[in-house]
Amino acid sequence: MLKILFVCAQNRLRSPTAEQVFAQWPGVETASAGINRDASVPVSPELLAWADLIFVMERRHRSKLSHTFRPQLRGKRIICLDIPDEFDYMDEGLIRLLKARVPRHLPASRVAPVSAEPDAVEPAIRAIGDELDES
Length: 135
Description:
The chain is an alpha/beta fold. It has a single domain, classed as Response regulator (Rossmann fold), CATH 3.40.50. The protein is built from 5 helices and 4 strands; from the N terminus they run βαβαβαβαα. It has helices at 14-21, 45-50, 59-69, 92-101, 118-134, and strands at 2-8, 28-34, 53-56, 77-80. Strands 2-1-3-4 form a 4-stranded parallel β-sheet. Strand 3 (53-56), helix 3 (59-69) and strand 4 form a beta-alpha-beta unit. The longest helix has 17 residues, at 118-134. The protein is globular, with a radius of gyration of 15 Å. The chain starts with a strand and ends with a helix.
C-alpha cells in the first residue's frame, strides 16, 4: 500500500480535497496536512515518516517543507502540483486539476479498477491508446 500525503498551507481546502478524491484509489492510503503552524492538521515528523510519497500544492510549500523538515524528508519523493490557492473545498475545478495531475504518479493509474463503472473503463482505454500513439 502506497501512503500518500497531500500538503497545502492551511489543510482546509486543497489538501483535504485531494485526500478525499484519492481516498478510494486502489493501492493507496491518503492523508493531508498543512505547512503553516495554524493548519487544521499541521505537518509533523510522524506524518512525514508515514508517507511514501508527498504531493505539495505550490513550490513555496516544497521550500518550506524542505527548510523545516530536511532530516525527515531524506529519501522521500516530493511532487509539486502547481495548484494555486483559489479553490474551495471539493471545488469542481480543483478536482479536475487533481485528477489531471496526480494519477500518473499512482499505482494502477493506467488501468480502471475492476469494479469500475462502464463509463470509467472507456476513458482508461483511450488514455492507454493515446500514450501508445505518443511513443
